[in-house]
Amino acid sequence: MADPIDVVAPDDSGSVTVERFEYQVHASLRGLLQMLAGTGVLHVTCEHIEDIVVASVAESDVTGQPFWDFQQIKTRDAPEPWGLSAVLDAKPLVSLWRTHKAIREIVSSYRLTAGLEGYLDPADEDVQALASGRGAEKKERLTRIAKRVKITTEEASEFLPLVRIQELPRRADIEHRNIAALWDLGPQLTGTEIKALYEELVRRAREAMQGKLGPRWPALVTSPEPEERVMRKRITVSSISDVQHRLLRPDHVLLKRITQNLTEIQTPLVRKMNAGAVSAGILENAQLLRANAESHRFTEEAIGTWNGDEKLEEDLDQRLLVAARTVVALQSETRPSPADVIFAALLDKLTVNPEAYDRLPLYGRDGMLLMGRACALSDECHFGWGSVNG
User: Which of 72, 77, 94, 155 has its CA 20 to 30 A from that of 371?
Assistant: First the structure.
């Protein structure tokens, strides 16, 4: 099969706003981080055929051809989770259908991904089915999607099993999560060094999106061939080999593991709870509560009922930290899973007496929401969850 680099892009306008452009830059770095981690990513191509195209050997077919992931990135200001209607309105499927038509005859193994800023609605069965490649399994859903994409149901039946939806961090959070993942790859480096390496990766991703990778002189003295112009949008292992060398451990063995897959990057909260031997269920609860607390705040802000007084927010956070650090100090030596015990004790404390912390209230004196805010404070590295290593 041919390399889709030879395909004429169905839509190569590249006319994105600055904000979407910047978000897309940080989204493309997730593939670069996987490349640096040695997970099988061969290269990342920006703004050709789709916003981002990731080629990998990890999912290659029996012929040894690369597996291609064509990603259409969509940002969103609304704090509400994505339902199927919102996904259809944003039209990532329209772009992915164009891509499917352009590459299906020459690429043997590929996926079509809608990368969406924010969360999917867990109660929307249709969007959940679409996200996992099951969009064509229900007749009513298939017909609805086909009508909106303006294709036949037969075409939709062929197309939708290839579609996936990937939840992406919000724009205020994606850079921090990427940097946390980069630090996992080079834990011996200082924060300043990690930040500098990340900014260098950002610079190269921006150049790739503008087709400016590589030396400038050929473009100045000649008219590059189409393939060469596209290659200037492709970041390979050799393109970032110098960054990779900077991430080497002292024994020159590259850390080949990001402790959590980049589709769900390990945040400080996850890292700290794992250090306390957290169980999978408790970790999932912590992440859910944190997301619920954020959703509560975003919703209140959207409808204008959130009290934006920084002193009130600071007072609440300080009270939560006093409670959390006290529980951690009392329970951190618990074996074998201090994180589970700390989580249960802190949740109990906040649920029994929420008014002692949420005095205004900002979070409706809801112990569950307060626990979510406490998890967010841990994610900001203000407290940990014990350690099985002492």
Answer: 77
